[in-house]
Amino acid sequence: MPNALAAEKSPYLRQHADNPVNWLPWGDAAFARARAEDKPVFLSIGYSTCHWCHVMARECFENAAIAEQLNTHFIPIKVDREERPDVDKVYMAYVQALTGHGGWPLSAWLTPDLKPFYGGTYFPPVDRHGRPGLPTLLNAIAKGWANDRDRLVAEGERALASLAENHRSGTTESFHSAPPLHETAGDAFERAYLHLYESFDASHGGFGGAPKFPRASNLDFLFRVAVLQGPASETGRSALEMADATLRHMTMGGLHDHLGGGFHRYSVDETWLVPHFEKMLYDQAQIAINLLDARLHTGEERHAWTARGVFDYVLRDLTHPAGGFLSAEDADSDRDPGDGGGHAEGAFYLWTYAQLAAALGPDAAFVSAHFNVRAEGNIPPGLDPHGEFGPGQNILHQIRPLAETAAAHHLTPAAAVERLAAALDRLRAIRASRPRPHLDDKIITAWNGLMISALARAAVSPAEALADKSPFLLDAALRAARFIERELYDAPRSTLYRTWREGRGASEAFAEDYAYLITGLLDLYEATFDIHWLQWAERLQTTLDTLFWDETGGGYFNSRADDTSIIIRLKEDYDGAEPSPNSIAASNLLRLASLLGDAGAPLHTRALRTIEALRSQWTRAPYALPALLCALERALAEPAQLVLAGDPASPAFRALAAIAHATPGPRRALLAADGGSGQAWLATRAPWLADLRPVDGQATAYLCEHHTCQAPVTDPAALSILLANGS
Q1: pLDDT digits 0-9 by tens, 439-460
Q2: Alpha-carbon span 299 to 435, nearest angstrom
Q3: For strand 640-645 and strand 499-500, is the pairing parallel, antiparallel, or unpaired?
Q4: I need a labelling partner for 39 at 20 to 30 A (CA). Which of 54, 213, 347, 447 fits?
Q5: Does 408 map to a domain?
Q6: Is 615 helix (H, G, I), strand (E, B) or coil?
Q7: Mean pLDDT throughout 324-343?
Q8: Where are the alpha helices (DSSP H) in 318-436?
């Protein structure tokens, strides 16, 4: 008989609905039961595409004897970390402090009032390699609760006090007494850059050794370094080379899905060959933005072609018919009986040489040479992380430029491109007939905000590779934004919700949802000049400030103040796989301040306080917060606006906008003085905008600082020169 999780919307929770464990979802009913029965809570946190969550479920939670232990002595609670990132961050902080590492599945034991007293990640079903299995641990904790409860309760109190000490919110003293930002920013920038420079892998791209993660904020920072130092300077050139090489090696490697487009979660090796095959929406969005920036700064069209593949994948496989974007695809899927059957990581993506030969016939040698497909397989011993790939398996990865493969097979480059494209089409069709990995089809507001940003920026990219796709990319961004506004936004309360699946989820949104979506809406405004998106961004910023702002210490908490189940409100102070909401909020505040003129002054102050709130972190370890350093750079720059006057739908206006989007350089707010309701609304916040008009009826660009504008230009070439000069 299914447990209580059968009634939940989360795919992860439903995966556990048939466990013999009497799981309860996180909520008042579970907490009341723990108090009434005076039992500790066993908290298990994961997500539906998590490989080791699946392993622990098969080994432990489907085991009747282990389930009996859990049901008898504990109140078992399951949490989907993607639905409740606030819960996950609290107990992950505890486990990391306790063990020195973290990950999923997260396993924690709590007192009935939700204070943690022990925890870890994956636990095996039996004692193994000197490590206790879950049954041994459950037995010891049950005995401890019965016989030495005071010690466990005291540990819970100690853990909570330690979390509070480590995440003190009060930074008022540093805000008032610390040196000015400009005196410390230069040192932080230099140290962050040196950290990346010294850890850069010149042979394979990326930073450090295995495993390698595509941490997008590192590349964002390097692109800004290139702008600040100048791309022709030694530092600027080096920053671009590191970013370009990292993206190039990622794209050539097995981390990149050469058939379906998009990128896997991370590489288990330093060469980007063997990925953990899970695909996450947030990675697709952020890597796509990195690729767009690489095209903008280097002019290399190959990066735009890779970004095109990412968008093709997302729009084909991760888009709901109503417009929102789905969360993720699993790493695991059913394996062909001829390859041993069962469920295995990478089964959907791997090829034997025989399979390739049967699919491609005479083209197999050419494709195999390009992607290093071999009869004995191309996965080095020791790089099969779970022992599931099987013999003779190959991961498609590009080992040389196509021009070299073409020359080796006596083909012209054009003929090689045509032959490779046809072969990939055939392989893609064959792969589509395989059992697909599990799709987590919930729609998360934060991650949709990231993808809206990527699509909006792609729609106005100068890349030739994206030119024919531009209307479709913009339409996808607009459909997603409208979906969120329709399905995940309570307009009377100006409040977002976190997830949608078979209807709106129960949890209201968290700081990251507001921050990421606001960025998406700002990018959407600059792509469309539709004032609605800027107006909505302003309203959402007000809600973010109301619900999450720390008036005492500055910065934003992850969770709301009115959720009593959260034992401590934390602030995210690390830009990891997803950037800290504080880093993104600081940039948003500065962008809004620049867009909204006089009305934006309080936003600028709030941005500075957000940066100051994390000063101890970014001065101590600036490489931990590259996205915040990008906000710091924006805060120290003179605010500038590029105002385009005219009809945004006219070809002349679009020609000026295209120059603005194609020119990297100093930060500028991009606004439309459309002569209508949009300009009228902007003028209520920045009165100086009211008088900007087209010159002689022509679309006109005004470059302005401190409410003072340079001589207007109407010619795109003249605007290009003006922006290139950084004036």
Answers
A1: 999 999 999 999 999 999 999 9
A2: 39
A3: unpaired
A4: 54
A5: yes
A6: helix
A7: 87
A8: 353-360, 364-371, 402-408, 413-432
Q: Tell me: do 298 and 363 sit in the same domain.
A: no
- Are 515 and 585 within 8 A, CB to CB? yes
Which domain CATH number covers 698?
A: 3.40.30
Find, among 706, 681, 719, the residue nearest to 525 by Cα: 681
The two structure tokens encoding residue 659: 């120059």
Residue 172 lies in a domain: no
Shared-domain flag, residues 269 and 390: no
In the listed set 403, 432, 461, which residue is the last one of a domain according to the structure?
432
Q: Which residue has the higher pLDDT, 183 or 525?
A: 525
Q: Which of 95, 221, 202 is nearest to 624 (CA)?
A: 221
171 domain-assigned:
no
Q: At what angle do helices 216-229 and 281-298 cross, to 10 degrees?
A: 20
**Which helix (H) or strand (E) is 329 found in, with range?**
strand 326-329
State yes or no: pLDDT of 343 exceeds 90: no
Placement of tokens 């030495």 in the chain: 148
Task: List strand residue ranges (DSSP E) for 7-137, in order.
Answer: 24-25, 41-46, 75-80, 106-110, 116-120
Range of the domain at 651: 641-724
CA-wise closest residue to 332 among 350, 348, 345, 351:
345
CATH number at residue 161: 3.40.30.10
Identify the domain boundary among 605, 637, 669. 637
Residue 574: CATH number of its domain: 1.50.10.10
In Å, what is the CA distance from 237 to each residue of 243, 246, 348?
10, 14, 40
Query: Both 62 and 157 in a single domain?
Result: yes
Same domain, 248 and 301: yes
What pLDDT is attached to residue 59?
A: 97
Closest CA to 441 of 329, 516, 346: 329
- Whether 467 and 612 map to the same domain: the answer is yes
**How many helices, marked H, and strands, marked E, lie in the chain?**
28, 19
Tokens 């190039």, located at residue: 248
Does 622 sit behind a cis peptide bond, omega within 30 degrees of 0 on the bond before it? no
pLDDT at residue 386 greater than cutoff 80: no
212 phi/psi in degrees, rounded to 5: -115, 130
Reported residue count of the chain is: 727
Total number of domains in the chain: 4
Residues 422, 492: one domain?
A: no
Closest CA to 480 of 523, 511, 420: 523
Say what the pTM is. Answer: 0.97
Structure tokens at 373: 């497909």
Rounded CA separation 519/522 (Å): 5
Q: Find the radius of gyration of the CA atoms of the chain.
A: 26
* pLDDT value at residue 170: 42
In a domain, 153, yes or no: yes
pLDDT of residue 40 exceeding 90, the answer is yes
CA 698/CA 652 separation, integer angstroms = 7
The kind and range of the H/E element at 166 are helix 149-166
Residues 159 and 198 in one domain: no
pLDDT at 450: 98
- 425 shares a domain with 481: no
**Can you name the residues that pair with 508 across neighbouring β-strands?**
497
Closest CA to 298 of 347, 248, 333: 248
